[in-house]
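Appendix B. Chain record.
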Amino acid sequence: MAPAAAKKGLLERLDAGEIIIGDGGFVFALEKRGYVKAGPWTPEAAVEHPEAVRQLHREFLRAGANVMQTFTFYASEDKLENRGNYVAEKISGQKVNEAACDIARQVANEGDALVAGGVSQTPSYLSCKSESEVKAIFRKQLDIFINKDVDFLIAEYFEHVEEAIWAVEVLKESGKPVAASLCIGPEGDLNGVSPGECAVRLAKAGADVVGVNCHFDPMISIETVKLMKEGLEAANVKAYLMTQPLAYHTPDCGKQGFIDLPEFPFALEPRVVTRWDIHRYARDAYNLGVQYIGGCCGFEPYHIRAIAEELAPERGFLPEGSEKHGSWGSGLEMHTKPWVRARARREYWKELHPASGRPYCSSMSKPDAWGVTKGDAALMQQKDATTEAQLNVLFAKKSLKSF
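Structure tokens predicted for this chain:
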């Protein structure tokens, strides 16, 4: 029997003009399913509940993703130890990173997907640790990614381009392709560096792919990547573009994105984008010249499937998950109600303006906009200490039967 052909790598695919579809959001999806704790947002589920992480990978693969990003968001040692997180006492960062790599590889091998090892911003940087100290944090994760032979690397979710550059410089030591994405909007990073300048600096640091992820919705993210593209072209610097936005509408957000919204993180559901919004996003991203198109927090497998379906003419095939869907609602042709059958067409869904069903709710919120230097004192003063203490006791005892 002839050996199986090796999978084409990231740059080989991009150089050939292929569209890379990333996966969706893990921490938010797994928090909703009961496997991740909001607040720390750390990925110990890779060790504690590997079956849950594996299943979500499989759903994204079936939906059309051809990148399985390791569930290593906030998996640096300093983050696991931060804020009194119990994880560091029970599960080492090494175990979390290794388990995440193994799960991603197993699922990637079930299809034509690549494995991307991911690092993100660190408490060490925010605590003003030195460049060498921050880079040492990234290098610990990189050593594991090298040992597990991931296909490429992603530095994502950085609010400061300086830290992202440090991450890129470390990841380039592997000799593997590196992508870098910032969680910024059109105003730039938290130090005021513009999106175009951020893109140029990342590319010059060695990033093969640059773009944005998280914090803002698809439309705002497209606007930000457009500014990145203009900056790269003006500086005559080359890099591929990527975008992996939120699946929440954020037109009212300020510089820090959705974390300033009063609905963050437990009441964001009214803001969820539809699959048809994602069709538009995928087309706009493609028309802009973005080749790496995926999602972040809030992106469920059906959102990823929408990307794959919108770009099926360019890619030449539909994902496996489309077998149970049908393009633009064509499956509705089998519905028993004639008025629902009439919705089995592209024009209907493209022109629809969905109602929220919330008659007393405003269409937008007033973000908290605390800024980046305020601590927790003001928030704690607003809390009902008695109620909080009672809830903490109940949760500690894992006894909610009295509710």
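Further analysis of this model is presented in Appendix C.
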